[in-house]
Write a structure and sequence with these properties.
The protein has about 210 residues and is an alpha/beta fold. Helices cover about 45% and strands about 15% of the residues. It has eight helices and nine strands. Strand 5, helix 5 and strand 6 form a beta-alpha-beta unit. The two termini are about 30 Å apart. About 45% of the residues are buried.
């Protein structure tokens, strides 16, 4: 597994409850990206959790690449101090973010964020990349999604090979995500085993429970 230098963060551009754990964890992700000298790749907005992670990363010394489209740009202004790449479509936006990243951190978000999660998973499924993905499970946000993937496998819609290729890591917070990233960068392994999932998703997995 390649060393992780650039991290794409997928999250909401509209959620802005600054007292919530979602917001607090987002700031922590940005802080750790900057302090760890990673580059942040994100959706380019200055609002919501997107803006929060970018501001936090910039404040802590990170380089930040925002990827957006003309339509999104008309609704969400880019953050000052970031490099902005303008592409034509949302599909191109996702493709560039996936290409530019070595790993993915997923925070709270709506339909667009979940769409991005499955784009990453499809890339893993067809063996296009082997980049790990970390779902920050604030308030058990991603438990239903993980259970759904498990259900697809139980029903025979995901093969054992597909499950094996998935690099999904369900983590409780930003600190755990960066612990795992540090282990990958130091050894290419987690807990002595090739990095796959800290919370394994496979055909024998019981449904994930709340932390």
């Amino acid at each position: 597994m390649n060393k992780i230098k650039s991290i794409a963060v997928f999250c909401s551009a509209s959620f802005d409850d600054r007292k919530s754990q979602y917001y607090i964890q987002t700031l922590e992700v940005g802080k750790r990206i900057g302090q760890g000298r990673f580059r942040l790749v994100y959706g380019g907005s200055e609002t919501g959790l997107m803006g929060a992670v970018a501001r936090s990363a910039l404040k802590n010394g990170a380089k930040v690449l925002g990827v957006t489209t003309p339509e999104v740009l008309s609704l969400e202004r880019p953050l000052k101090g970031t490099k902005v790449e303008l592409v034509k479509t949302l599909q191109e936006r996702k493709r560039m973010m996936i290409q530019e990243a070595d790993a993915f951190i997923i925070l709270g978000g709506g339909i667009g964020t979940i769409d991005e999660v499955f784009d990453v998973l499809v890339g893993q499924q067809i063996n296009e990349h082997k980049k790990p993905m970390f779902l920050v499970n604030t308030n058990n946000f991603f438990v239903p999604l993980v259970n759904y993937v498990t259900f697809l496998s139980e029903q025979g819609f995901l093969s054992s090979l597909t499950i094996k290729r998935m690099k999904i890591n369900l983590v409780k917070d930003a600190a755990e995500a960066f612990e795992q990233i540090s282990k990958i960068n130091n050894k290419g392994k987690i807990n002595g085993k090739t990095c796959k999932a800290t919370k394994t998703i496979n055909t024998k997995t019981k449904k994930q429970k709340a932390y």
